[in-house]
């Protein structure tokens, strides 16, 4: 079943055309890794998927609902799409527990006791149940990013977008975050991740998408794509990053 | 001529200090109220409201407080509605304070990282929910040190009200000097009294600044 469907999406910033007709469909439970050079439009694509940027033309459909001009409120969108950022973006004035509970409480108006129970569950899942009352500033980068993942999970999105979620971390902290994502993938969560961690893309993704100059230049199963790249651009990219 | 002992002078200055404090409080409370209103006008999506607020802020930041005071005091009289020095000083200081506080607070709201807006938005929060739960609490904490710091400027600003004849600390000092011709003693005492009002506030602002820093918010 197709969960995310992107059809001929274009996006420009002024004269700069960043997305030049993206076509992509992601099935329920699929893990898609997006790779590509800096400036190729990876983040812009993710940001269009949750409407942090409005695409200029084309269609984006998520869970059979079209995402365009005001057809989906932030609230409705959050029921479908979750996002984790490179810079964590935790709320620094709130504890870990409060960070996780805030949106279910104020956006969904759910019962407090129920929300707290869910918060403890998702924090358990990311291995941070003992940090419920800590503030973000008291945590390491890896822990903060895991809280951010838990916070997104608490909204029970159908698909999670991750934009270079390990790029801001010290090398020794990258593993703990990737393991959490791997566990999510194994549980059947639909993931679309932009990543520079090629070994992670190879081991965990069902499909790798290589973006180049605003287009999807090549895509396929990671084993295929990495061992047998078809285009010179991907060959060059792979030899540069591996 | 009446003889003034040191204690008479001090007692009179202390009595006048009351009015400096009262005027400062009026300016601060009035200025904060108007300033808050202006801050939200500035944040509104209406272009005209934004421009109007910017103009207001620029106008009051770009002219001396003394001129504002004169314009209100003498302007009201010239238009046939003379007002007391009290009222003129209260209005001028309120307007002046509101312009600065608006600017300080807008800066604090903008200082909250953009990523906070994005995070709240992808969690499904609308503008008001984001403001209420994410942006305002952080901006509020950021705003306390500069706001307390600015209150020192307000206190010193009240000294200008002496020029239109309002008897606060500075004016009392001038009047006592005219009667006693002991300018050094008197103005040293006046300065000391201002210092006693302002210094604790400065220290408090610095303490709050440090606390913020420790909380990892900066
Ligand atoms: N809000 C914006 N306004 C103007 N230009 C933008 C904006 N966002 C992105 N761009 C430009 O669009 C292009 C693609 O940016 P994007 O962030 O999607 O690239 P990316 O593939 O994620 O790169 P990176 O690997 O460096 O994160 C870049 O040239 C960038 O400068
Ligand atoms: Mg990017």
From TrEMBL, chain A:
Entry keywords, A to Z: Amino-acid transport, ATP-binding, Cell membrane, Membrane, Nucleotide-binding, Transport
Cellular compartment(s): Cell inner membrane
Membrane association type: Peripheral membrane protein
GO function terms (MF aspect): ABC-type amino acid transporter activity; ATP binding; ATP hydrolysis activity
Primary localization class, coarse: membrane
InterPro entries xref list: AAA+_ATPase, ABC_ATPase_HisP-typ, ABC_transporter-like_ATP-bd, ABC_transporter-like_CS, MetN_ABC_transporter-like, P-loop_NTPase
One GO CC annotation: plasma membrane
CDD domains: ABC_HisP_GlnQ
PANTHER family linked to this entry: AMINO ACID IMPORT ATP-BINDING PROTEIN, GLUTAMATE_ASPARTATE IMPORT ATP-BINDING PROTEIN GLTL
The name this protein goes by in its record: Glutamine transport ATP-binding protein GlnQ
Species for this entry: Vreelandella titanicae
From TrEMBL, chain B:
Membrane topology: Multi-pass membrane protein
Keywords: Amino-acid transport, Cell membrane, Membrane, Transmembrane, Transmembrane helix, Transport
GO cellular component: ATP-binding cassette (ABC) transporter complex
Alphabetical list of SUPFAM superfamilies matching this protein: MetI-like
Primary location group: membrane
Any one Pfam family match given in the protein's UniProt record, by short name: BPD_transp_1
Family: Belongs to the binding-protein-dependent transport system permease family. HisMQ subfamily.
PANTHER family: BLR6398 PROTEIN, MEMBRANE COMPONENT OF AMINO ACID ABC TRANSPORTER
Protein name: Glutamine ABC transporter permease protein GlnM
Species in which this protein is naturally found: Vreelandella titanicae
């Amino acid at each position: 079943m197709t969960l995310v469907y992107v059809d001929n999406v274009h996006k420009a910033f002024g004269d700069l055309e960043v997305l030049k007709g993206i076509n992509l469909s992601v099935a329920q439970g699929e893990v898609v890794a997006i790779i590509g050079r800096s400036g190729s439009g990876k983040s812009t694509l993710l940001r269009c998927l949750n409407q942090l940027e409005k695409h200029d033309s084309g269609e984006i459909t998520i869970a059979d609902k079209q995402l365009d001009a005001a057809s989906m409120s932030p609230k409705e969108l959050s029921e479908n799409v979750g996002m984790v950022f490179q810079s964590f973006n935790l709320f620094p004035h709130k504890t870990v527990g409060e960070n996780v509970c805030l949106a279910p409480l104020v956006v969904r108006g759910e019962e407090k006791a129920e929300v707290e129970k869910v918060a403890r569950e998702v924090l358990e899942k990311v291995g941070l149940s003992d940090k419920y009352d800590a503030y973000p500033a008291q945590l390491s980068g890896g822990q903060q990013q895991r809280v951010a993942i838990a916070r997104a999970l608490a909204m029970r999105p159908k698909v999670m977008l991750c934009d270079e979620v390990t790029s801001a971390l010290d090398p020794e902290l990258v593993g703990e975050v990737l393991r959490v994502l791997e566990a999510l993938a194994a549980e059947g969560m639909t993931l679309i991740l932009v990543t520079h961690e090629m070994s992670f893309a190879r081991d965990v993704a069902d499909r790798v998408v290589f973006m180049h100059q605003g287009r999807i230049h090549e895509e396929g199963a990671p084993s295929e794509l990495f061992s047998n790249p078809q285009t010179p651009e991907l060959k060059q990219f792979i030899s540069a990053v591996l | 001529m009446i003889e003034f002992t040191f204690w008479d002078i001090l007692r009179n200055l202390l009595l006048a200090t009351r009015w400096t404090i009262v005027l400062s409080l009026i300016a601060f409370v009035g200025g904060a109220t108007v300033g808050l209103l202006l801050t939200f006008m500035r944040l509104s999506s209406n272009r005209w409201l934004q421009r109007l607020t910017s103009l207001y802020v620029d106008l009051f930041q770009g002219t001396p407080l003394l001129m504002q005071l004169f314009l209100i005091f003498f302007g009201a009289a010239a238009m046939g509605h003379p007002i007391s020095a009290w009222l003129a000083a209260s209005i001028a200081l309120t307007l002046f304070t509101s312009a600065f506080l608006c600017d300080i607070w807008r800066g604090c709201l903008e200082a909250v990282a953009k990523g906070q807006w994005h995070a709240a938005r992808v969690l499904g929060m609308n503008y008001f929910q984001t403001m209420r739960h994410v942006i305002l609490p952080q901006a509020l904490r950021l705003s306390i040190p500069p706001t307390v710091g600015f209150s020192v400027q307000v206190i010193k600003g009240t000294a200008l009200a002496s020029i239109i004849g309002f008897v606060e600390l500075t004016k009392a000092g001038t009047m006592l000097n005219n009667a006693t011709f002991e300018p050094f003693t008197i103005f040293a005492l006046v300065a000391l009294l201002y210092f006693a009002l302002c210094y604790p506030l400065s220290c408090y602002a610095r303490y709050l600044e440090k606390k913020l820093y420790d909380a990892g918010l900066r």
